[in-house]
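User: Structure with 1-deoxymannojirimycin, tokens only please.
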Amino acid sequence: MIRESMRHIRFIGLIGPMLLAFSTMAQPVDRKAMAGAVKTEFKHAWDGYKQYCWGHDDLKPISKTCRDWYGTTILMTPVDSLDSLYLLGFKNEADNTREYIAKNLSFDKDISVQNFEITIRVLGGLLSSYEITKDKRLLALADDLGTRLLPVFNSPTGLPYRFVNLKTGKTSGPVSNPAETGTLVIEFGTLSKLTGKPIYFEKAKRALVETYKRRSPIGLVGTNINVETGKWTNTDSHVSSEIDSYYEYLLKCSILFADSDCRTMWEDSIAKINSFLADENASMSKTNRTGKMAVGDLWYGHADMNTGKMTSTTTGALDAFFPAVLALDGDLNRARALQDSMFHMWQLNGIEPEVYDYKTGKVEEAGYPLRPEIVESTYYLYHYTKDPKYLAMGKQMFDDFVKYCRTDVAYAGLKSVVTKEKADYMHSFVFAETFKYFYLLFADEKTLDLNKAVFNTEAHPMWRNWKN
Ligand code: DMJ
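Assistant:
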């Protein structure tokens, strides 16, 4: 019989016909050595980016060529990486990068950008680095970018269009999703607080509220919504891609801004998620069932937003953010159980797949684009429980990450976690998030006080150090 408290012993889970041995968590982890190893690997990838693609958005780590998202650079990797450079202790590198950004970044470009990605990566990166350095040039860039993004909210519903031209303000992309309509308030709200201009917070909060208002009678949101009509075009409900960070921001908005509307919306939403999407009967093995939640006893699946009927048992790398959200909300029982499930998903192939069916045990989409979510949750769980199990978990993941994703010049995603064939991309979030969460897990906790900061969904910390 498996008990959650027996976490330092080897235990067995039966998945379909497969018997899997979970490795022991008994070895103590040398946190200082691990933090050093993370720094070394971060620097390896950063140096590769600098050598081959400095000034461009991304390095393609296999071909050693560069990618600019919109045909012209908006310094995606430098901006997304800047606060990590500071937090990991690369001060000179960070100061040089900041200088380069301040002198070279311009948003006066005739390009149509994706509001969500630019908000979480670029606006979020500028704001958190401003809060670290107090360099007013970063805040001015953020203010300019925020102004150029504002036209997205000019829809009949107040829900944002997906794209906006930074020069002309022309919007496009009326069919959106809750993640894109509802993952803006941390960045826009912080911009309001820091500039004294309330419009940013007002527009982003309205978008969040308008998304919530369109929940179904049983309190769930769907996957796709038309921002002009306000009607859902896809009623699949889950905590995965296209919805995930909408829920994250309901909770984080309530914390960062002490916003009681966000708190009410979050509390209602998490109750409905746990009623309709939590799947506690999908245990990998009946032998695991002890009355307490054990590995595999909690997953979150898909249901129709109107009927609540479960429609699929898929989860994946993106869903692995949810233990962090549960932990931040104080629900450590569910957070622990779900994290165990997610780590099990990681261990099946030594690295996690993009989409996994927890009922059949099948990998449905085998890619791994260097995602951070499972590391983020490990960091939160260690912070809130101080259980060394999460350090061991983090070490295992970091070792696997290095083993399978490191290239001669940087880090590469995987085309398949089964074959481990590499893919020619390295998203900027590997610097903004994946390495940062690995580092924070192992580093001295004084590096960043999680009780005083709220991370945006791209791991850019926002400190509540403005005057209300
Ligand atoms: C990041 O850009 C953000 O974490 C976003 O919320 C989801 N996708 C990537 C990382 O996987």
